[in-house]
Amino acid sequence: MIGLIGIVVALLVARAFWMMIVNKDFYMSKGEARFERNLPIAVSRGMITDRNGEPLAVSTPVESVWGNPQELFKHQNRWPELAKALNIPFGELQRKLAQKEGKEFLYLKRRINPDEAKRILAHKIPGVASQREYRRYYPQAESIAQVLGFTNVDDKGQEGLELAFESWLKGKPGEKRVIRSRQGDIVESELVKAPEPGKELVLSLDRRVQYLAYKELHDMVVRSGAASGSAVIVDVNSGEVLAMANVPTFNPNATVQKNIDAHRNRAVTDLVEPGSTMKPITVAAGLTAGKITPNTVFSTEGGRIANGPFSITDTHNYGSLTVTGIITKSSNVGSAKIARLLPNDYFYEYVHKMGYGSKPRSGFPGESSGLLPKTSNWDGTTKSTMAYGYGLSATPIQIAMAYAALANGGRLLTPTFVKGGKVESKQVIEPEVAAQVMRMMETVTKPGGTATQAAVLGYKVAGKTGTARMVSETGGYSRKYNAFFAGVVPVDNPRFAMVVVVNDPDTSKGYYGGLISGPVFRSVMEGTLRLMDVPPDDIQTWIAANAKAGHPSVRSPVDAAIPPVAMPRVALPPQSAAAAAATAATAQRALPKPVALGVGGGK
């Protein structure tokens, strides 16, 4: 018996020696596999701000509760308690765990308030833990949704600028090695890789101008019974996009998105036939070719001329018009006659170099190049109809950049959404020609023009209306219209180009560009010029208007009282004390502040 016991003891010592000395690494790795884990360290996505540093997209810390199904199956008696803590039906929890049986990880509830996660963990159910994540919030909500886009549940950019700058914004998660007790508590941790937060992105957008553009566009779409609308404002000298609004829109903060069609940034992706906004380009082509001057006279033939088997008509019989008058009255007949003086290849190349038929290269995902048919595909009517904006298509941003080129002395710029972003410039029009066209477009907003409702008191406005029939789904043109206004202000020292497109307004309420889109331009530019401290260039008109209204003491727009317009506030979800302290500064900056808009009271 003593010998037998000695043999057993010897075997036990030998086995212990084998396990603890000879093959210890194998057994240590097995033990560590049960209690040691490498866990990711969540990293905050870079904040997106407007040009003035005001937050447009911020990341707030949240918690995600997860479970180890292998461990949870050992404690099935705690499942009802867990379901109640998670506030989900017991059957739903059973299905989740059954699908992941044998696995080691399962999300139980994602991106919730840290205080809620703490309450769930307080039940100390074996196999249940939480991890830090971040959730994206958009303080401006609907007003800028299509431009910014949004992130998914994993905080990855899905659309808009969130997608375009994903690599810049996302950062690099860290990693830590932890040892857990049998109860799942972390008893030791070691940093393996430090996290690298995402970089901040400063956009060219101004949140105040953006909200103003959205509000005025939204109000007009509602008033006119239109289907949709877009508005773009660009700095004519830098190519920076100051505002880009679309209606209908959506709330990027909502968990569930219902109207997917509203996600589309129509100002960059949707094609429209530009209508009469093409006429200044047709005139510029004729001036450059030396075929016309601003004072060249054309007969409008009673308001109707033949164009192959069709007819080109004007809304009125304007008799004889100078080239300037063709712009002022928006004569289709006069524009077609100018185009007919130009060779096909020359006219095509001139329109193409103005940016039509090519992508603007703004970097925005999904931007369209438009449609500019090559001369080999033209028939006998194409050139004449292109002269007044039919037979080709463009996006609102393309039209805006073409008008910016007319305003800045003939330089076509690549648009940018980044403040101080790299912009390419190409001289496409002679400065003298661009200046002549600007002076002609100035007559459009003066008495006798088609867009007197787009005039901004105290400033000279150069612009052009457009009213184009929409293509029918069955072919040809329908009785629906797109209403345009494209303009530049102030004329003497151009700063901003703006394009407004309202799609399919109710014809019983009016559908002409000057009536529908012109007032949006006026209201937005009134506020933008004041916000940007742009001095007026038409003081005499301002003084005369105020004297007529009985306010002779108001000597300039700077003296006028400006009513405040409050921007909407988006409520952030409740946070724990620690999370609130960590994000208090960002959250305070993220809340929109009241902004002063408008000039005088003559709206």
From TrEMBL:
Catalytic activity: Preferential cleavage: (Ac)2-L-Lys-D-Ala-|-D-Ala. Also transpeptidation of peptidyl-alanyl moieties that are N-acyl substituents of D-alanine
Catalytic-site annotation from UniProt: S276 (acyl-ester intermediate)
Primary subcellular site in the record, as a coarse category: membrane
EC numbers for this chain: 3.4.16.4
Keyword Cytoplasm: no
Transferase keyword on record: no
Domain Penicillin-binding protein dimerisation stretches: 41-189
Cell location: Membrane
Residues of the Penicillin-binding protein transpeptidase domain: 229-526
Taxonomy, superkingdom: Bacteria
Pathways per UniProt: Cell wall biogenesis; peptidoglycan biosynthesis
HAMAP family documented for this protein: FtsI_transpept (MF_02080)
PANTHER family, sorted: PEPTIDOGLYCAN D,D-TRANSPEPTIDASE (PTHR30627), PEPTIDOGLYCAN D,D-TRANSPEPTIDASE FTSI (PTHR30627:SF1)
Name recorded for this polypeptide: Peptidoglycan D,D-transpeptidase FtsI
The organism of origin for this protein: Aquilutibacter rugosus
